[in-house]
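Limitations
The C-alpha cells in this dataset are predictions for the assembled complex, not deposited experimental models. Users should treat interface geometry with appropriate caution, especially where small molecules or nucleic acid strands are included. An illustrative entry is reproduced here so readers can see what is and is not provided.
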Amino acid sequence: MVKTLLGRSWIWSWIAAAAAFGLIMLLTQGRGAEELAYAALSFGAFAAIVGLGQMMVITLGPGNVDLSIPATMTLAATLALKGMGSDPGTSLLGLAIAIGVGCGAGLANFALIYLLRLPPIIATLAASLIYQSLAIWSNRGLRIKPPADLADFATGRTIGIPNVALIALVLSVVVWIVLERSVFGRWLLGSGQNLRAARLAGIPTQLVRAVTYTSVAVLAAVAGYLLASFSGGASLNMGQEYLLSSIAVVVIGGTSIAGGNSNVPGIWGASLFLFLVVSMLNSYGLGAGVRMLLTGLIIIGIVIAASTRRGRA
Amino acid sequence: MIRLFARHRILLPAVSLIVLLAATFYMQPRAMSYFGINLLFNLAIPIALATLAQMMIMMVNDIDLSLGAFISLVACITATVLHDQPVLGMAILAALILAYACLGALIHWLELPAIVVTLGMSFVWAGLALTILPSPGGSAPAWLRTVMTVKPPLFPMAVVAAVLIAGLSHVLVIRSGIGTVLRGVGGNAASVGRAGWPLLRLKALAYALAGVFGVLAGMALVGLTTSADANIALRYTLLSIAGVILGGGEFVGGRVSAVGAVIGALTLTLAASFLSFLRLSPDWQIGAQGAILILVLTARLIFTRRDRTQG
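Predicted assembly:
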C-alpha cells in the first residue's frame, strides 16, 4: 500500500504541501490552521485551473506549451466584466463571454500553430501580445467592479470550502475523466508519446491538438473570470504570475515535461504547495527577495529529486 | 529570387529589417539622421546582447526562461556594487557567469528539462535582484556611461556596436572550431559525444557563453538607463526568444545565426518605434509587435516551403 502510494508521482507534491503546512503550524503553534487551509484552497484554485490547461498542452509532447495563458486570462476577465457592467444577475452572461473569449483565443493559437507551422512557444507568445493589446484597448485600464452577487459567490464558501475551490475541483474531475476514461484522453496521451505513431494508428492528431489548445485557453479564461470576480475587478497584469506558476505546478505535480503522461492530483498538490511555501517563508519573517530565492531553489530541488527518483526506478 | 531567399536564411531577416527601416524613414524623414538613428536603435544594444545569450542556449537545444530575470540582476549589481566597489562587483559578475556554467553542467548531468530549471532560476535571480536593490535606484559607473554614450564619427554608437557585436559573435559561433562543435551538440549530441568531445564541458561552455552575453546585456542596459530596478529587463526573456527566431534560428538542431539574432533584435526594437510613428494608439503597440513577428515568420514559411517543393 505504502509502496504503491510512493510510486505515484503526484504523492511528492502532496507531501511537500503537507510539510510546508506543518512548518507553518509549528511556528504558530497550531493556531490559524483552518484559516490557512482556507486561504490555500482559495488561492490554489486559480493556479490549479490554469495548471490543468497547461498540463494538457504539455502532455501533447516536447515543444508544446501555452505562453498566452496570462494574456487570455486578462482579456477574458476584462471583456466579461465590461459585458456585465456591474449589473446584478449578469453572471452567466459574463461567464459566456469569458468562455467565448477562451474559445476564440484557443482557436487563434491553434490556427497560428497549424496554418503557419509556427513553434507553439512563438505562436502563443506572439498571439499573447495581441490579446494584451486587445485587453488594453477594450478597457483603457479602467477597473469595472464585478456584479455584487458574483463577487459574493467568488469570495464565498459552501460547506466550509471556498466556492472557487469547488469549481476548480469540478473542473479537475472533468479533466481527469476526459484524460483517463475517454477515447479523447487516450488520443491525447498517444499523440504526446509518439505523434507519428499516433497519426499512423489513425488518431486525428491535428483535431486532438486543436481541442487541447482550445481547452487550455477556455480554462485560462474561466480562471481569469473567477479571479477578477474574486479580487474585485480585472487589472492588466492580473495574469502575470500565472505564466510561471502554470508551468511550475505541472512539473512539481509530477507530469512529465517530455509529454505523453499527465497527472491531475499532482496539480492540486503543487498548487497548494506553491501557495503554502510562500506563506511559510512569509510567516518566518523573510523578505520578498529571499522568499522568491527560496521558492526558486525549492522548485529546482523538487525537479532534481523527481529526476533522480525516475533514474533509480 | 525565392530560391535565393531559401538558400541564404540570413536574407529574409535582413530584408525585413531594411523594409521596416525604409518604412520608418518614409513616415518620419527626420529620423534619417545621426541623432535619429541613434535614438531609434539605442535600446537595441542590450536586446541584441540578450538575444545572443538566448541563442547560445538554443544552440544546444535548450531554452532559457530566466534570462530576463538574470539581466535584471546584473543591472542591479552594476548599478550598486560595481559602482561602489568595482573589484567586488567584477567578482560577483564573474561568479554569476560561473553559476550559469554550473547550471548547464547540472542540466546535462542529471538530464533535467532546461525549461523547468531555468524557470526555477528566474525566481532565484529575481529574488537576489530584489534583495540587492529593493527599490529602483542606483547609478551607472561613470566609465560604463561613457562607453555607452560615446559618439563615434560617421555612424552612431548603436549601429557601430550592433555591427561589432554581430561580427564578433559570428566569428565565435559560426567560424571558430569550438562554435562549430557547440552547434554540433544541438544537431546531434550523441554523435558529438561519440567523436570524443566531453559533452558535459561543452554544455557548460554554451551556458557560460550565455552568461557572458547576459552580463554584457545587463551592463549595457544600465549604461543607457543610468539606474536600475529589479524588474528592469523581465520582458527580455520573451524578446530574446522572439529575436532568435526572427533572425532565422530554430528551437532544435543547432541551427542558429549570430548575425541573424542581432538583426532580429534590431527589428524588434525598430518595430516599436515604427508603430509610434504610425500614430497608432499606444494600446496597440504591443499587439502590433506580435503581428510583425507573425508576419515575418509567415514570410519565412512561404520561402522554406517553396524550397522544399522545388527540391
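Some entries come with short summary sentences. For this one: Chain A touches chain B through 46 residues (CB under 8 Å).
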